[in-house]
Amino acid sequence: MSKPLIHINQLSAGYDKQTVLKDINLTIYENDFLGIIGPNGGGKTTLLKVILGLIKPSSGEVRFEKQGLRQHIGYMPQTNAIDKKFPIIVSEVIESGLMGIRLSKQEKKERREQIVQEMSLQEITKKPIGELSGGQLQRTLLARAIISDPNLLILDEPSSYVDKHFESHFYNLLQKINERTAIVLVSHDIGTIISNVKNIACINESLHYHAGSDIQEEWIEEHLGCPFEVIGHGNIPHRILKKHQTNLHE
User: How many CA atoms lie within 13 A of 176 on its CB side?
Assistant: First the structure.
């Protein structure tokens, strides 16, 4: 059985005295592939920020089983967090994932070249990020997130990078990475979550955990707190949320 990496106990958090997360309990295990779903404003991104140490909880705790684990988390942010006008090339973006890690210049170069090959980025290492396609940017940021060989990889809405023709390959890469690294993936695409993860957490202020990805639509609708429809095309049904009222804070 996998050993626990992170224990989240009775966690509450929010902004400007408004509670976004309340009494959250969750354990993330080694080699876990946890999918997090929930409505806009339900607290998905807030939970990631607490785990990453970007915001402090108002109560409760995040306890790491390994010393220094928070410094060994790979993070791939949403598209809107990336400044594509910033003057930086692909190889520099990737190597920035080694900041703060004690390696020689040669060791960093070797690590970068290894990850570049794994992500099939050899042809664009000198390309500015502003010239990348959605799939190229996605692979570049994934390379940056895993170059340090983290114990945990956090992905915030990776499907927001569009480039649908690369999506299947991207999730195949994640399956290989999951052989050595625990993954937490936040997505609005419920069909993608169910098709790729091992376990599911639904967050809508509180958290409901489901071991395994074989879940019923009724469970999702009940704990998501939102009505949704299933659209079938291709091999995977896509679940979309119907129009409804949600909170304003994430």
Answer: 10
Whole-model pTM: value is: 0.84
Pairing label, strands 206-210, 73-76 = unpaired
Please tell me the distance from the alpha carbon of residue 119 to that of residue 121, in angstroms, as a whole number.
Answer: 6
Radius of gyration of the chain (CA): 18
Cα dihedral: 221, 224, 230, 231 (round 10): 170
CB distance 127 to 89 below 8 Å = yes
**Dihedral sign computed on CA atoms, order 85, 248, 13, 7:** negative
pLDDT tens, 116-153?
999 999 999 999 999 998 888 989 999 999 999 999 99
pLDDT tens, residue by residue, 27-62: 999 989 999 988 888 899 999 999 999 999 999 999
Going by their DSSP bridges, the two strands 182-186 and 33-37 should be labelled as: parallel
Decide: 246 and 40 in contact? Cβ < 8 Å. yes
Question: Residue 189: phi, psi to the nearest 5?
Answer: -85, 90
Instruction: Kindly report the number of other CB atoms within 10 A of residue 221's CB atom.
Output: 15
